[in-house]
From TrEMBL, chain A:
Stretches that traverse the bilayer: 26-50, 70-94, 140-163, 183-201
A Gene Ontology BP annotation from the UniProt entry: amino acid transport
Pfam families (alphabetical): BPD_transp_1 (PF00528)
Similarity comment: family membership: Belongs to the binding-protein-dependent transport system permease family. CysTW subfamily.
Keyword Cytoplasm appears in the UniProt entry: no
Record localization: Cell membrane
Keywords: Amino-acid transport, Membrane, Transmembrane, Transmembrane helix, Transport
Organism: Salirhabdus euzebyi
Record has Metal-binding as a keyword: no
Domain ABC transmembrane type-1: 22-201
Alphabetized InterPro entries for the sequence: ABC_transp_perm/SBD, MetI-like, MetI-like_sf
This protein's name: Osmoprotectant transport system permease protein
Cited PANTHER family: GLYCINE BETAINE/L-PROLINE TRANSPORT SYSTEM PERMEASE PROTEIN PROW, OSMOPROTECTANT IMPORT PERMEASE PROTEIN OSMW
CC annotations in GO: plasma membrane
UniProtKB/TrEMBL annotation, chain B:
Domain of life: Bacteria
Residues of the CBS domain: 255-312
Source organism: Salirhabdus euzebyi
Subcellular localization: Cell inner membrane
InterPro entries the record matches: AAA+_ATPase (IPR003593), ABC_transporter-like_ATP-bd (IPR003439), ABC_transporter-like_CS (IPR017871), CBS_dom (IPR000644), CBS_dom_sf (IPR046342), Gly-betaine_transp_ATP-bd (IPR005892), P-loop_NTPase (IPR027417)
UniProt keyword list: ATP-binding, CBS domain, Cell inner membrane, Cell membrane, Membrane, Nucleotide-binding, Repeat, Transport
Phylogenetic lineage: Bacteria, Bacillati, Bacillota, Bacilli, Bacillales
Protein name: Quaternary amine transport ATP-binding protein
Domain ABC transporter: 2-237
GO annotation (BP), single: glycine betaine transport
Reaction it catalyzes: a quaternary ammonium(out) + ATP + H2O = a quaternary ammonium(in) + ADP + phosphate + H(+)
Entry membrane topology: Peripheral membrane protein
Amino acid sequence: MSFITELGQYMAENSSDLLALTIEHLLMVVYGIGLALLVGVPLGIIAAKYEKVAPFILSLTNILQLVPSLAMLAILMIYFGLGFETMVIGLFFYSLLPIVRNTYVGIREVDNSIIEAGVGVGMTSLQLLRKVQFPLSIPFLMAGLRVASVIAVAVACIGPYIGAGGLGKEIISGISLQSEVKIYAGAIPAALLAITADLILGRVEKKTKQRTV
Amino acid sequence: MIELKKINKVYDDGFQALKDIDLTFEEGKINVLIGPSGCGKTTTMKLLNRLTEHTDGQILIDGKDIKEINPIELRRRMGYVIQSIGLFPHMTIYDNVATVPKLLKWEKQKIKQRVEELLNMVSLPPETYMKRYPSELSGGQQQRIGVIRALAAEPSTILMDEPFSALDPISREQLQDELVRLQKEIKKTIVFVTHDMDEAIKIADQIILMKDGHVVQKGSPQELLSNPANDFVKEFIGEERLGNNQSLPPLNKLIVKDYPSIPSTLSVEEAVNKMVSNHVAGLPVVDAEGAYLGVISLYKALDHKKASLVDLVDNTVMTVQETTDSNELLSKISGEKSIIPLLSEENKLIGVVDNKKLLEALHQIYKSKSGVA
């Protein structure tokens, strides 16, 4: 019981620092995923439209995902140095697979009869993509985004190892100081962040699904 | 009008789907392509909007080779209705129907008007349905939307690929009836693919029966039923339907060929004599070349004995052409009091319809249908 009050006291005393770390953490995730969307959605579309390059794109993103996170960040650090940007790039790589894969699957899953109707009424390939295939793949994309954001919140916790901030800072300093309170003070907000992201995006996903099935 | 000339279609794997197809889809008619699966009926239809390309031969739409028309443009000019309906689930009914007008960049006001008009045409009130999504409609309603989506940009041709076969029997019947009714208003050239003979007979102006990439027989439903070209056609149509359609013998079996006639140069007096001696009440009048002029009736002749024959001829009497279908005659004949001359295409008198023979033929059919005989 005393531990919980101690933790509460610590968090209340350091609330402004913790908030700043949380925001930093969130920003890394948002930037990383934003970049991944910017790059991943077009890649997914290309993979879906051109069957020949699909295995290449998909296995590349797969490999990125397979590299252990600490190793990936270490390698990135060699090229991009220490800091916030390197972490964003790392998160970008980690979010790529779920986004590319889900965009790809979403577009491929559009019912053939709907595609036939679109072609039959005289849509160009681009119009078909813009008006039919992409809108119908959004629920899949949202599911990918959800997975990506949960992973990104977790991976971002090792940010301090490469000189980025975020809630990881609190956790890691807690480890080196052997302070349970500090570890929890970092871990709990990080976990809450992941759960919130999952809940919100889950709801969005459900909403986009309503019309498209 | 759409003409297919010597069309062949060979797939990459060497399978020849269509062999030397020569076809004309008539303007403003419902042309039904029918046949067992794999006969090439859908392939034939998909050639028309270039969803499939033919290997050789020529397809002309209003005289223009479709290879010279951009496929995207071509498709926007043709309505397309598919079996699985294929409405866009993320768009409202309004947006679905407006798809092609939007692609063609019509003005908003014009699109709205058109969509409302079309929804009214299929008895779906626009206020209620415009904002709904396809999943909120029944199958029959969805396909109605499918049909009016195809009509939206006023194409002259509509392609329909088994549009009603996925619907329940009641909706199917309703939509068939509606299509026939709609067609009377819109008069489009419809190419309709089906495997259901009842459907074909019900809606078609022209049926094209295919098998293994060939056209086996084409003609009106009546022609196919009364005169199936071979055993395959008979089998495909089915004994039951053929039996039901037991029809009258051809017209030239139902006439008196040596019915007396009178040249217009003779006098009324002579006409009266001829009628009396033949026990008839009317005579067809012909000119020197045998061309039909009209009918002279006994009563009229007796009233005006002094007049000339040409003046008394009644040319308003109903006549039938040699090529007329016997069954068609039946629908016209009721209440006709005069004799009915049968004319060749050159307007020459061939004979006169024999009421007695017609009656006998009718009795025969009635008996066989009700199982008396």
